Protein backbone atom coordinates (compact mmCIF):
# COMPACT_ATOMS: atom_id res chain seq x y z
CA UNK A 1 0.00 0.00 0.00
CA UNK A 2 1.17 3.51 -0.72
CA UNK A 3 2.78 5.09 2.32
CA UNK A 4 1.51 8.57 1.79
CA UNK A 5 0.24 10.13 5.05
CA UNK A 6 -0.02 6.74 6.71
CA UNK A 7 1.37 7.95 10.02
CA UNK A 8 -1.12 10.80 10.10
CA UNK A 9 -3.85 8.37 9.12
CA UNK A 10 -3.19 6.24 12.19
CA UNK A 11 -3.95 9.13 14.52
CA UNK A 12 -6.87 10.10 12.32
CA UNK A 13 -8.57 6.79 13.01
CA UNK A 14 -8.75 7.76 16.65
CA UNK A 15 -9.84 11.33 15.99
CA UNK A 16 -12.43 10.57 13.33
CA UNK A 17 -15.14 8.85 15.29
CA UNK A 18 -17.98 10.30 13.30
CA UNK A 19 -18.48 11.34 9.70
CA UNK A 20 -20.58 14.29 8.67
CA UNK A 21 -23.15 13.07 6.19
CA UNK A 22 -25.06 15.48 3.99
CA UNK A 23 -28.68 14.93 3.22
CA UNK A 24 -29.92 15.39 6.78
CA UNK A 25 -32.34 18.22 6.15
CA UNK A 26 -30.34 19.29 3.11
CA UNK A 27 -31.70 17.63 -0.05
CA UNK A 28 -29.52 18.19 -3.09
CA UNK A 29 -26.89 19.85 -0.92
CA UNK A 30 -29.02 22.87 -0.05
CA UNK A 31 -29.81 23.84 3.55
CA UNK A 32 -33.21 25.08 4.69
CA UNK A 33 -32.01 28.67 4.51
CA UNK A 34 -30.89 28.20 0.90
CA UNK A 35 -27.18 27.85 1.68
CA UNK A 36 -25.37 25.43 -0.65
CA UNK A 37 -23.51 22.77 1.32
CA UNK A 38 -20.27 21.42 -0.16
CA UNK A 39 -18.93 18.33 1.56
CA UNK A 40 -15.14 18.09 1.44
CA UNK A 41 -13.40 14.83 2.32
CA UNK A 42 -9.76 14.41 3.38
CA UNK A 43 -7.68 11.90 5.33
CA UNK A 44 -4.88 13.79 7.08
CA UNK A 45 -5.94 15.09 10.49
CA UNK A 46 -2.71 17.10 10.82
CA UNK A 47 -3.76 19.24 7.86
CA UNK A 48 -7.35 19.82 8.98
CA UNK A 49 -6.71 23.08 10.90
CA UNK A 50 -5.12 24.66 7.84
CA UNK A 51 -7.90 23.61 5.51
CA UNK A 52 -10.52 24.69 8.02
CA UNK A 53 -8.94 28.14 7.87
CA UNK A 54 -9.18 28.00 4.07
CA UNK A 55 -12.85 27.02 4.39
CA UNK A 56 -13.57 29.90 6.75
CA UNK A 57 -11.87 32.35 4.40
CA UNK A 58 -13.74 30.92 1.41
CA UNK A 59 -17.11 31.22 3.14
CA UNK A 60 -16.47 34.90 3.81
CA UNK A 61 -15.95 35.38 0.07
CA UNK A 62 -18.96 33.20 -0.80
CA UNK A 63 -21.56 33.67 1.96
CA UNK A 64 -24.05 31.45 0.15
CA UNK A 65 -21.79 28.37 0.34
CA UNK A 66 -20.91 26.33 3.42
CA UNK A 67 -17.91 23.93 3.44
CA UNK A 68 -18.28 20.86 5.63
CA UNK A 69 -15.02 18.99 6.12
CA UNK A 70 -15.17 15.22 6.63
CA UNK A 71 -12.10 13.25 7.69
CA UNK A 72 -11.32 9.53 7.84
CA UNK A 73 -8.01 7.73 8.24
CA UNK A 74 -6.16 6.57 5.10
CA UNK A 75 -7.53 3.01 4.84
CA UNK A 76 -11.08 3.88 5.85
CA UNK A 77 -10.99 6.95 3.63
CA UNK A 78 -10.81 5.03 0.35
CA UNK A 79 -13.23 2.35 1.51
CA UNK A 80 -15.73 5.00 2.56
CA UNK A 81 -15.24 6.97 -0.63
CA UNK A 82 -15.87 3.96 -2.85
CA UNK A 83 -18.93 2.94 -0.85
CA UNK A 84 -20.48 6.40 -1.03
CA UNK A 85 -19.88 6.60 -4.77
CA UNK A 86 -21.75 3.33 -5.21
CA UNK A 87 -24.53 4.65 -2.97
CA UNK A 88 -24.53 7.93 -4.92
CA UNK A 89 -23.86 9.92 -1.74
CA UNK A 90 -20.17 10.73 -2.12
CA UNK A 91 -18.64 14.02 -0.94
CA UNK A 92 -18.87 16.81 -3.50
CA UNK A 93 -15.10 17.36 -3.40
CA UNK A 94 -12.41 15.07 -2.08
CA UNK A 95 -8.64 14.90 -1.79
CA UNK A 96 -7.40 12.61 -4.54
CA UNK A 97 -4.16 10.64 -4.84
CA UNK A 98 -2.26 9.80 -8.02
CA UNK A 99 -2.44 6.09 -7.28
CA UNK A 100 -6.23 6.27 -7.07
CA UNK A 101 -7.40 8.84 -9.57
CA UNK A 102 -6.87 6.69 -12.68
CA UNK A 103 -9.73 4.35 -11.82
CA UNK A 104 -12.01 7.24 -10.88
CA UNK A 105 -11.32 8.98 -14.17
CA UNK A 106 -11.80 5.89 -16.35
CA UNK A 107 -15.03 4.97 -14.54
CA UNK A 108 -16.39 8.50 -14.95
CA UNK A 109 -16.65 9.04 -11.19
CA UNK A 110 -14.91 12.43 -11.18
CA UNK A 111 -15.44 15.49 -13.36
CA UNK A 112 -13.16 16.69 -16.11
CA UNK A 113 -12.20 20.18 -14.95
CA UNK A 114 -11.05 21.37 -18.39
CA UNK A 115 -14.30 23.24 -19.20
CA UNK A 116 -14.16 25.09 -15.89
CA UNK A 117 -10.46 25.78 -16.30
CA UNK A 118 -11.04 27.34 -19.71
CA UNK A 119 -13.39 29.89 -18.15
CA UNK A 120 -11.19 30.65 -15.13
CA UNK A 121 -8.08 32.67 -14.40
CA UNK A 122 -6.16 29.65 -13.09
CA UNK A 123 -2.67 29.51 -14.62
CA UNK A 124 -1.26 25.98 -14.60
CA UNK A 125 2.23 27.45 -14.99
CA UNK A 126 2.11 28.63 -11.36
CA UNK A 127 2.48 25.06 -10.11
CA UNK A 128 5.72 23.15 -9.70
CA UNK A 129 6.76 21.61 -13.02
CA UNK A 130 5.00 18.36 -13.82
CA UNK A 131 2.36 18.49 -11.08
CA UNK A 132 -0.60 19.48 -13.23
CA UNK A 133 0.19 16.82 -15.83
CA UNK A 134 -0.14 14.11 -13.18
CA UNK A 135 -3.90 14.66 -13.36
CA UNK A 136 -4.33 14.39 -17.12
CA UNK A 137 -6.56 11.70 -18.55
CA UNK A 138 -5.39 9.10 -21.10
CA UNK A 139 -6.12 11.55 -23.93
CA UNK A 140 -3.65 14.07 -22.50
CA UNK A 141 -6.27 16.80 -22.65
CA UNK A 142 -8.78 16.14 -19.89
CA UNK A 143 -7.79 17.28 -16.40
CA UNK A 144 -9.25 15.67 -13.29
CA UNK A 145 -7.72 17.73 -10.50
CA UNK A 146 -5.84 20.90 -9.63
CA UNK A 147 -2.57 20.38 -7.71
CA UNK A 148 -2.62 21.14 -4.00
CA UNK A 149 0.82 20.02 -2.82
CA UNK A 150 3.92 17.96 -3.60
CA UNK A 151 6.29 15.76 -1.68
CA UNK A 152 9.60 13.99 -1.96
CA UNK A 153 11.43 11.69 0.43
CA UNK A 154 14.43 12.28 2.68
CA UNK A 155 16.52 10.46 5.26
CA UNK A 156 15.42 11.37 8.78
CA UNK A 157 18.01 10.81 11.49
CA UNK A 158 18.64 11.37 15.17
CA UNK A 159 21.25 14.14 15.33
CA UNK A 160 22.68 12.99 18.67
CA UNK A 161 23.14 9.43 17.43
CA UNK A 162 24.72 10.80 14.27
CA UNK A 163 27.35 12.65 16.29
CA UNK A 164 27.99 9.60 18.46
CA UNK A 165 28.77 7.61 15.31
CA UNK A 166 31.31 10.21 14.20
CA UNK A 167 29.30 11.75 11.34
CA UNK A 168 28.28 15.33 10.64
CA UNK A 169 25.11 16.49 8.85
CA UNK A 170 27.23 17.60 5.88
CA UNK A 171 28.60 14.05 5.54
CA UNK A 172 25.12 12.76 4.72
CA UNK A 173 24.82 14.94 1.63
CA UNK A 174 27.60 13.02 -0.12
CA UNK A 175 26.61 9.44 0.77
CA UNK A 176 26.51 7.01 -2.16
CA UNK A 177 25.13 3.50 -2.48
CA UNK A 178 25.51 0.61 -4.93
CA UNK A 179 24.04 -2.91 -5.01
CA UNK A 180 27.46 -4.60 -4.74
CA UNK A 181 28.79 -3.45 -1.37
CA UNK A 182 26.32 -0.74 -0.41
CA UNK A 183 28.90 2.03 -0.74
CA UNK A 184 29.36 4.76 1.84
CA UNK A 185 25.65 4.66 2.61
CA UNK A 186 25.83 1.09 3.89
CA UNK A 187 28.95 2.01 5.86
CA UNK A 188 26.96 4.79 7.47
CA UNK A 189 23.99 2.53 8.27
CA UNK A 190 26.37 -0.02 9.80
CA UNK A 191 27.96 2.62 12.00
CA UNK A 192 24.53 3.75 13.21
CA UNK A 193 23.57 0.18 14.15
CA UNK A 194 24.32 -1.03 17.68
CA UNK A 195 23.84 -4.52 19.12
CA UNK A 196 22.76 -5.37 22.67
CA UNK A 197 26.39 -5.34 23.84
CA UNK A 198 27.03 -1.84 22.53
CA UNK A 199 29.00 -3.04 19.50
CA UNK A 200 28.40 -1.11 16.29
CA UNK A 201 27.61 -2.77 13.00
CA UNK A 202 30.99 -1.80 11.54
CA UNK A 203 32.95 -3.12 14.53
CA UNK A 204 34.39 -6.58 15.16
CA UNK A 205 32.16 -8.74 17.30
CA UNK A 206 28.88 -7.20 16.16
CA UNK A 207 25.93 -9.57 16.76
CA UNK A 208 23.38 -9.19 13.93
CA UNK A 209 20.90 -11.42 15.75
CA UNK A 210 20.64 -9.30 18.88
CA UNK A 211 20.32 -5.70 17.82
CA UNK A 212 19.36 -2.86 20.15
CA UNK A 213 19.23 -0.09 17.54
CA UNK A 214 18.88 -0.62 13.80
CA UNK A 215 20.73 1.79 11.56
CA UNK A 216 17.84 1.97 9.08
CA UNK A 217 14.20 1.34 9.85
CA UNK A 218 11.16 0.79 7.63
CA UNK A 219 7.45 0.14 8.07
CA UNK A 220 6.68 -2.62 5.55
CA UNK A 221 7.98 -4.18 2.34
CA UNK A 222 6.51 -1.46 0.16
CA UNK A 223 4.48 -3.55 -2.28
CA UNK A 224 4.94 -2.39 -5.85
CA UNK A 225 5.51 1.24 -4.86
CA UNK A 226 8.17 1.24 -2.13
CA UNK A 227 7.85 4.99 -1.70
CA UNK A 228 9.50 5.19 1.73
CA UNK A 229 11.16 1.80 1.58
CA UNK A 230 13.22 1.00 -1.53
CA UNK A 231 12.14 3.48 -4.21
CA UNK A 232 14.97 5.96 -3.55
CA UNK A 233 17.46 3.18 -4.21
CA UNK A 234 15.78 1.55 -7.20
CA UNK A 235 15.11 4.85 -8.96
CA UNK A 236 18.69 6.03 -8.43
CA UNK A 237 19.83 2.71 -9.90
CA UNK A 238 18.25 3.66 -13.23
CA UNK A 239 15.01 1.73 -12.69
CA UNK A 240 11.59 3.00 -13.82
CA UNK A 241 8.14 1.92 -12.65
CA UNK A 242 6.62 1.87 -16.12
CA UNK A 243 7.45 2.22 -19.79
CA UNK A 244 5.78 5.63 -19.76
CA UNK A 245 3.97 7.76 -17.22
CA UNK A 246 1.17 8.54 -16.86
CA UNK A 247 -0.87 5.68 -18.30
CA UNK A 248 1.97 3.23 -18.88
CA UNK A 249 1.10 -0.32 -19.91
CA UNK A 250 4.26 -2.20 -18.89
CA UNK A 251 5.74 -2.25 -15.37
CA UNK A 252 9.39 -3.04 -14.71
CA UNK A 253 9.09 -5.33 -11.71
CA UNK A 254 11.20 -8.00 -13.38
CA UNK A 255 14.00 -5.65 -14.47
CA UNK A 256 17.54 -6.38 -13.32
CA UNK A 257 17.90 -2.89 -11.86
CA UNK A 258 15.05 -3.57 -9.43
CA UNK A 259 16.05 -7.13 -8.64
CA UNK A 260 19.58 -6.20 -7.65
CA UNK A 261 18.29 -3.24 -5.64
CA UNK A 262 15.84 -5.38 -3.67
CA UNK A 263 18.52 -8.03 -3.19
CA UNK A 264 20.86 -5.48 -1.65
CA UNK A 265 18.13 -3.81 0.41
CA UNK A 266 17.06 -7.19 1.81
CA UNK A 267 20.67 -8.02 2.66
CA UNK A 268 20.65 -5.21 5.23
CA UNK A 269 18.27 -7.40 7.25
CA UNK A 270 20.66 -10.35 7.12
CA UNK A 271 23.51 -8.11 8.24
CA UNK A 272 21.48 -6.84 11.17
CA UNK A 273 21.31 -3.24 9.95
CA UNK A 274 17.54 -3.33 9.30
CA UNK A 275 14.86 -5.19 11.30
CA UNK A 276 13.20 -8.35 9.99
CA UNK A 277 9.87 -7.77 8.26
CA UNK A 278 7.90 -9.29 11.15
CA UNK A 279 9.44 -6.77 13.54
CA UNK A 280 9.03 -3.83 11.17
CA UNK A 281 5.32 -4.59 10.79
CA UNK A 282 4.67 -5.39 14.46
CA UNK A 283 2.52 -2.29 14.96
CA UNK A 284 5.10 0.20 16.21
CA UNK A 285 5.55 2.84 13.53
CA UNK A 286 8.77 4.28 12.18
CA UNK A 287 8.09 7.61 13.85
CA UNK A 288 7.75 6.04 17.27
CA UNK A 289 10.75 3.78 16.67
CA UNK A 290 12.97 6.70 15.70
CA UNK A 291 11.81 8.69 18.70
CA UNK A 292 12.52 5.83 21.10
CA UNK A 293 15.96 5.08 19.66
CA UNK A 294 15.02 1.70 18.20
CA UNK A 295 15.83 3.09 14.75
CA UNK A 296 18.63 5.56 14.03
CA UNK A 297 17.36 6.60 10.60
CA UNK A 298 14.32 6.12 8.38
CA UNK A 299 13.35 7.25 4.90
CA UNK A 300 10.13 9.23 5.07
CA UNK A 301 8.15 11.83 3.17
CA UNK A 302 7.95 15.59 3.50
CA UNK A 303 4.39 15.30 4.80
CA UNK A 304 5.77 13.93 8.08
CA UNK A 305 8.65 16.40 8.50
CA UNK A 306 6.97 18.48 11.17
CA UNK A 307 5.74 15.43 13.07
CA UNK A 308 9.28 14.03 13.19
CA UNK A 309 10.69 17.38 14.30
CA UNK A 310 8.24 17.45 17.22
CA UNK A 311 9.24 14.05 18.62
CA UNK A 312 10.11 14.33 22.29
CA UNK A 313 13.47 13.03 23.42
CA UNK A 314 15.08 13.06 19.97
CA UNK A 315 16.62 15.81 17.84
CA UNK A 316 15.42 14.63 14.44
CA UNK A 317 16.84 16.22 11.29
CA UNK A 318 16.61 15.43 7.57
CA UNK A 319 19.17 14.77 4.84
CA UNK A 320 18.64 13.86 1.18
CA UNK A 321 18.47 10.27 -0.02
CA UNK A 322 21.84 8.86 -1.20
CA UNK A 323 23.34 9.11 -4.68
CA UNK A 324 22.98 5.85 -6.61
CA UNK A 325 24.80 4.03 -9.42
CA UNK A 326 23.03 6.22 -11.99
CA UNK A 327 25.12 9.12 -10.69
CA UNK A 328 22.24 10.94 -9.01
CA UNK A 329 19.91 10.66 -6.09
CA UNK A 330 16.20 10.10 -6.73
CA UNK A 331 12.81 10.47 -5.11
CA UNK A 332 9.23 9.76 -5.96
CA UNK A 333 7.54 13.04 -6.81
CA UNK A 334 4.01 12.73 -5.59
CA UNK A 335 1.22 15.21 -5.21
CA UNK A 336 -2.40 15.45 -4.28
CA UNK A 337 -5.27 17.19 -5.98
CA UNK A 338 -8.86 18.06 -5.23
CA UNK A 339 -11.39 16.19 -7.35
CA UNK A 340 -15.08 16.80 -7.91
CA UNK A 341 -17.41 13.81 -7.69
CA UNK A 342 -19.32 13.48 -10.94
CA UNK A 343 -22.59 13.01 -9.03
CA UNK A 344 -22.43 16.24 -7.07
CA UNK A 345 -25.71 18.17 -7.21
CA UNK A 346 -23.76 21.43 -7.10
CA UNK A 347 -20.84 21.20 -9.55
CA UNK A 348 -20.45 24.97 -10.02
CA UNK A 349 -20.12 25.61 -6.29
CA UNK A 350 -17.82 22.60 -5.97
CA UNK A 351 -15.61 24.10 -8.67
CA UNK A 352 -15.43 27.41 -6.80
CA UNK A 353 -14.11 25.52 -3.78
CA UNK A 354 -11.59 23.52 -5.83
CA UNK A 355 -10.44 26.71 -7.53
CA UNK A 356 -9.93 28.35 -4.14
CA UNK A 357 -8.02 25.36 -2.76
CA UNK A 358 -5.68 25.63 -5.75
CA UNK A 359 -5.10 29.37 -5.26
CA UNK A 360 -2.34 31.26 -3.47
CA UNK A 361 -4.91 32.43 -0.90
CA UNK A 362 -5.31 28.89 0.43
CA UNK A 363 -1.90 27.49 -0.42
CA UNK A 364 -0.14 30.35 1.39
CA UNK A 365 -2.18 29.44 4.47
CA UNK A 366 -1.06 25.83 4.16
CA UNK A 367 2.55 26.95 3.68
CA UNK A 368 2.40 28.59 7.09
CA UNK A 369 1.32 25.36 8.80
CA UNK A 370 4.61 23.61 8.17
CA UNK A 371 2.77 20.45 7.13
CA UNK A 372 3.18 20.41 3.33
CA UNK A 373 4.95 21.91 0.36
CA UNK A 374 2.14 23.61 -1.59
CA UNK A 375 1.92 23.03 -5.33
CA UNK A 376 2.20 26.73 -6.24
CA UNK A 377 5.88 27.62 -6.53
CA UNK A 378 5.68 30.87 -4.58
CA UNK A 379 3.69 29.21 -1.81
CA UNK A 380 6.23 26.39 -1.75
CA UNK A 381 8.97 28.98 -1.16
CA UNK A 382 7.02 30.23 1.85
CA UNK A 383 6.82 26.66 3.16
CA UNK A 384 10.61 26.36 2.97
CA UNK A 385 10.83 29.41 5.25
CA UNK A 386 8.28 27.88 7.62
CA UNK A 387 10.22 24.63 7.80
CA UNK A 388 13.42 26.56 8.47
CA UNK A 389 11.74 28.37 11.36
CA UNK A 390 10.79 24.96 12.76
CA UNK A 391 14.41 23.80 12.52
CA UNK A 392 13.78 21.49 9.56
CA UNK A 393 16.18 21.44 6.60
CA UNK A 394 13.67 21.73 3.77
CA UNK A 395 16.52 21.57 1.25
CA UNK A 396 16.71 17.83 1.93
CA UNK A 397 13.38 17.55 0.12
CA UNK A 398 13.65 20.47 -2.28
CA UNK A 399 17.03 19.33 -3.68
CA UNK A 400 15.23 16.73 -5.78
CA UNK A 401 13.11 19.40 -7.42
CA UNK A 402 16.09 21.73 -7.88
CA UNK A 403 18.29 19.01 -9.38
CA UNK A 404 15.57 17.38 -11.48
CA UNK A 405 15.89 14.01 -9.76
CA UNK A 406 12.18 13.47 -9.15
CA UNK A 407 10.23 10.55 -10.61
CA UNK A 408 6.43 10.93 -10.82
CA UNK A 409 4.18 8.41 -9.14
CA UNK A 410 2.90 5.89 -11.70
CA UNK A 411 -0.62 6.71 -12.87
CA UNK A 412 -2.84 3.89 -14.14
CA UNK A 413 -6.40 2.71 -13.74
CA UNK A 414 -5.12 -0.75 -12.72
CA UNK A 415 -3.00 0.26 -9.74
CA UNK A 416 -5.16 -1.58 -7.20
CA UNK A 417 -4.89 -4.82 -9.18
CA UNK A 418 -1.14 -4.36 -9.58
CA UNK A 419 -0.71 -3.82 -5.86
CA UNK A 420 -2.82 -6.89 -5.11
CA UNK A 421 -0.13 -8.88 -6.93
CA UNK A 422 2.98 -7.00 -5.82
CA UNK A 423 2.23 -6.57 -2.12
CA UNK A 424 2.26 -10.28 -1.21
CA UNK A 425 5.09 -10.90 -3.68
CA UNK A 426 7.31 -8.24 -2.10
CA UNK A 427 6.32 -9.35 1.40
CA UNK A 428 7.44 -12.88 0.60
CA UNK A 429 10.80 -11.67 -0.72
CA UNK A 430 11.57 -9.38 2.21
CA UNK A 431 10.46 -12.08 4.67
CA UNK A 432 12.92 -14.49 2.96
CA UNK A 433 10.04 -16.76 2.02
CA UNK A 434 10.77 -16.30 -1.68
CA UNK A 435 13.79 -15.54 -3.85
CA UNK A 436 14.25 -12.09 -5.31
CA UNK A 437 13.83 -13.63 -8.78
CA UNK A 438 10.21 -14.42 -7.89
CA UNK A 439 9.48 -10.76 -8.64
CA UNK A 440 9.95 -11.56 -12.33
CA UNK A 441 6.86 -13.77 -12.33
CA UNK A 442 4.94 -11.24 -10.26
CA UNK A 443 5.88 -8.55 -12.76
CA UNK A 444 4.67 -10.67 -15.65
CA UNK A 445 1.33 -11.13 -13.92
CA UNK A 446 1.05 -7.39 -13.46
CA UNK A 447 1.76 -6.77 -17.13
CA UNK A 448 -0.86 -9.29 -18.18
CA UNK A 449 -3.43 -7.01 -16.54
CA UNK A 450 -2.96 -4.65 -19.44
CA UNK A 451 -3.65 -7.39 -22.00
CA UNK A 452 -7.16 -7.85 -20.67
UniProtKB/TrEMBL annotation:
InterPro entries: Bact_solute-bd_prot1, SBP
Gene3D superfamilies: Periplasmic binding protein-like II
Primary site of residence: other
Top-level lineage group: Bacteria
Location in the cell: Cell envelope
Keywords associated with the record: Signal, Transport
Stated family: Belongs to the bacterial solute-binding protein 1 family.
Name assigned to this protein: Sugar ABC transporter substrate-binding protein
Source organism: Microbacterium gilvum
Amino acid sequence: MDRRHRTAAASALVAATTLVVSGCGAPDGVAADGTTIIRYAMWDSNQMPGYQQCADDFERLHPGIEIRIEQNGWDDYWTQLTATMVAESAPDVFVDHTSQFGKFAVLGQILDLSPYLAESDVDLAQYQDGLADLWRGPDGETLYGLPKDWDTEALFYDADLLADAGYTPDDLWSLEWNPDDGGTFEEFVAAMTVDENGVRGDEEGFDPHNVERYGLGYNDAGGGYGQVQWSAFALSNGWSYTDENPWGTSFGYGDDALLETIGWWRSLIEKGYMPPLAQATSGVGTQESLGSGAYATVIEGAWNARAFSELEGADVQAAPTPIGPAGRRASVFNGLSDAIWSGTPNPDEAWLWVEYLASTDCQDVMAGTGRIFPAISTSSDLAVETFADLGIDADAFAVHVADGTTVPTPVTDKWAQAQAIMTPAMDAVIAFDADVDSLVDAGERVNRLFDE
